[in-house]
Amino acid sequence: MSTRFANIISLIGIVVLAAYVAWMYPSLPDPMPTHWNAAGEVDGWSSKPLGAAIIGGMALYSFLIFKIIPVISPRGFRTESFRGTINILMTATVTFSCIVGIGAIRGAMDDSINTSTFMSVAVGMLLMVMGNFLGKVRKNFFLGIRTPWTLASDEVWAKTHRLGGWCLVVSGLFMIVMAIVGGNILWALYAMAAGGLIPVVYSYFAYQNIEGFGPDPKIEDE
Known about the structure:
The chain is mainly alpha-helical and 222 residues long. Helix content is 71%, strand content 5%. The protein has two domains: 112 residues, no CATH class; 99 residues, no CATH class.
């Protein structure tokens, strides 16, 4: 995806979310709910101005983070080689923020809305999108599965991210299915946690098999 197209789509999402929050602002309660637990029950409140600002700016915050990453990445870990993938991930994250923001505003106005189901489907879809493109992320300090072993080996990085991509897709699909069938959302959260933990553990064993943990050759020569 080109940077220009990604910027256009992202900016549209940012404006849509901000405009929607501004439009619904007079009808929002004060204080307003801004956080829901796994059961969909409100467990966090904010003042109306602060809550609206946080939710209305979610898409913008996501956009800015993705724009900062290429600028501050150090030499040797630059992101130009996978700029198209970053653009896709940025667009998906901004779109996700926009959808979640609108859902949060609706949930703040109507407590009969099952925010837990809505959020689970949205998160599941984001995980599936990210999983499909995770394998194209090259070694860097900000995106991907950054363990000591993936950062130390290009091959371990590649193998771990291929596995991690599949884990995210499966976790995301499981979250969506559980939300639709009305299953216990905690199981979906466990699946998401497992999807993140499995590649981390795998990266250790992959490094052990590929590189090994013997003495540093440079130190031995000295």
